[in-house]
Amino acid sequence: MPALEENAARILPAVERAIAELRRGAAVIVQRPDGQSALIQASETSSEESLNELREISNAEPCLLLTARRAAAIGISEAEPLINTTEVIAFALDGMSPEAAAYLADPVHDPLGINLRHDNFLTTEVPEILARNAVLLTKLACLLPAALFVNLPDGTDKQLAEEHNLLVVSADDISSYRSTAAYSLKKVASAQVPLEMAEKTTVVAFRPKDGGTEHLALVIGDPDPNQPTLIRLHSECFTGDLLGSLRCDCGDQLRGAIRLMEEQGGGILLYLSQEGRGIGLMNKLRAYELQDRGADTSDANELVGFDPDERVYIPAAEMLRQLGYDEVRLLTNNPEKATSLIECGIEVIEMVPHHFPSNGHNEFYLKTKATRFGHKL
Ligand SMILES: Nc1nc2c(ncn2[C@@H]2O[C@H](COP(=O)(O)OP(=O)(O)OP(=O)(O)O)[C@@H](O)[C@H]2O)c(=O)[nH]1
Ligand SMILES: [Zn+2]
Fold first, then answer.
1. Residues 263-278: pLDDT tens digits?
2. Residue 67 in contact with ligand 1 by CB distance below 6 A
3. Is the pTM of this model over 0.90?
4. How many Å apart are CA 23 and CA 30, to the nearest integer?
5. Ligand with an atom nearest the CA of residue 272
6. What is the pLDDT of residues 112-163, one digit of tens each?
7. Nearest CA to ligand 1 atom 22
8. Would the CB of 287 count as within 6 Å of ligand 1?
9. Which of 91, 148, 335, 356 is geometrically suited to a Cys-Cys bond with 41, CB 3.0 to 4.6 A?
10. Can you give the residue range of the structural domain that contains 21?
11. CA of 143 to the centre of ligand 1 (A)
């Protein structure tokens, strides 16, 4: 079996299982080849009971890991001297109620009522790679990006896992999950789906060979793979694409792209499963609550604890390669999409603007895309 396939067969099921464990509120062990390991739980799905279980299993006091973005949002700046990693910050939970700990991670509640004592900042080092990947696993699970974390004594993970029937996942596997999933995408189905706006449309479905996120390609009309092809990378937006939400411009852009491709004789629209700029629908709705209180779309993501844009375009490049289109005219206002495709080896001949007038509700959103994300007007 080639190395990539062999790795994917190990990495994808292992990380998928760990995601399922976190989503159901269970603890998992994250480990490294050098013997370091930690017991973790997702903050969002933890409860007083599961927190106590974590204490009992490890015989230690867990800490709470937040992203630096979330820590900054609750008033702890990255310059804080006791902050021990660049991307993830640890707090001691000692003496804090489970509700208070949950509020620190949950942006929809007001954290101002919680008094962080000086000794809530950890003075001991948290192993950075374990901590970073613990939080990454909560992101991959589309939960709030925060984890309860207990550092385990080196070499104790196997025994603990056996005694308590805990899943063990490698930190390296978590960090390579997204790219491994992208490179192991395979075509699983291809069917003609005549659309109102483009009767000759084929929907091609891709899935990583060993499970994981599925993405779709819409082949519209007769695109010529020997000419630079009109391509749209469209990130999933349940509210805009399906419900016709006026908060964003996604519905207009989706239908506008299909119409334009039909008019120009053909094109490929990739429908990418990365809802809410990669934070998932539940977290996007949380970000909307914060926008209703005055934050813009970029700051709202940060208040939830994410980067303003968490998307990756390796799956898009991989699908284009497999479909045979590696020279593209990219329908977008977002320079980041072009840069990312170029980094993945796709030649972007041209960025074709894709603007729609404001609908009366999304004016500030469109303005923010230009001012905060550098979208071309
Ligand atoms: N987190 C978050 N995501 C949003 C918000 N509004 C829209 N989205 C998501 O943003 C994505 C829309 O991205 P696209 O239209 O593909 O890309 P873009 O960055 O706007 O760039 P263009 O190619 O110029 O359209 C979808 O995944 C939406 O769900 C918001 O307020 N918060
Ligand atoms: Zn949208």
1. 999 999 999 999 999 9
2. no
3. yes
4. 16
5. 1
6. 555 555 455 654 568 889 999 999 999 999 999 999 999 999 889 999 999 9
7. 332
8. yes
9. 148
10. 3-178
11. 19
